[in-house]
Structure prediction request, 471 residues.
Amino acid sequence: DGKYLLFTRDIDDFQHRPYTRTFLCRLTFETMKVDTLLESGWLNTVEWSPDGNMLLLLGSPELFGNLGVNLPEGKIPNDYDTQAYLFDLETKTPRAISREFNPTIHKGIWDKSGKHIYFSATDGEYVRLFRYSLATKKFTPYQLGIEVLENFDVAQNKPVGIYYGSSVSTPNKAYIIHFNKKEPQLFSDPAGEEFQYVDFGKVERWTFTNRRGEEIEGRIYYPPDFQPDKTYPCIVYYYGGTVPVTREFGGRYPKNLFAAQGYIVYVLQPSGAIGYGQEFSAYHVNDWGEIVAQEIIDGTRQFLEAHPFVDKKRVGCIGASYGGFMTMNLITKTDMFAAAISHAGISSLSSYWGEGYWGYLYSSVATANSFPWNRKDIYVDRSPLFNADKVNTPLLLLHGDADTNVPRGESDQFYVALKLLGKPVEYVRVKGQDHHIIEYSKRIIWQKTILAWFDKWLKDQPEWWEELYKK
Prediction:
């Protein structure tokens, strides 16, 4: 109604995680009085209710102490597992509404009546649209015709929304949805004509049971011309950090493209990822590769046993950022991979903690209450650099030389260590690129480099690599 303004201000707070404090304030225009409604380190976004009596807050499970935490006593929540809260402005009391809801909230929009809230949320490998009823306190999913919702918006005066997203073998499409009807309407298919004659291989779900007896989700990409009586090389892809590898189309590591080059591609979602409930995501905290590496090794072994058309001697692995750390970590623990690729990986947890653009801030979640001086078992023992002598797998290191997230020194020092040890390693730095390789011409060479490395070691076809990097 124009009477109030919500705003936030942030200050450093080096004594408490996450080392910043956010003040949520309400300014009354008539009196110019400012009330502080909330002080917390874990607030993400705020939305007024239509009647102005409540706020929708998105933030960490710890936004209001333990109100949003759904974990056994003593476990630290993964603070990237975003929860939704309703905050009563009259009583200044919050209510956690997604505590028992396993998907992880990303965005929330009220409907005009104030009776429902629309949420986008990561649900395992999928990103879905849900409607939350304030009356029944239930979340209801919509069938969108896509597997990964990228973004959505809701009309102000009608029960209509617009959204776009993609699926595992379908590029981005935009739709209009009438919330009172069942079927969404296609609004735009910008890549439809471009891909109408492209054949994609089958993609199927495949899971295994980890050592705790829990199901670990995954999927398999097949070559378009797959024949079960042949044997194929395989690429294992993972992130292993705090988010799952969702089923969006394309991306920086296009699994469809890898499969089109004649590879079976296995993607798995190790413990610690959001979207599977708070207990699952909490395994990310203070793990740094212990549980995740074992699950990737166990999952790959079970996958190979279950799929005899995959050549066990021609299996490669690849990951980026935290996944790049996992590549480095894995090859200090196993020789099962014939080739490995790490993009922007972390080789020493203490140097990343102190030097990265947000190393210590990310560590406030991933290494909660743990520091180089009190957890040598994490910062030294789980750092690939301090285990470099155990590496035997041919490794390709990739890094943007302007990376502000994971400084290039993380790859520099691992390369030096492996070279001094006489291990098989190559290192490609991409000039002027940050954490992601964005510049088109450099992106193309970078992508070819990945494929050429795998072709060299998994197909015994070194010609492409030798053409790209002539000695």
About this structure: The first strand starts at residue 4 and ends at 12. DSSP finds eleven helices and 25 strands in the chain. The mean pLDDT is 96. The CA atoms of residues 347 and 384 lie 5 Å apart.
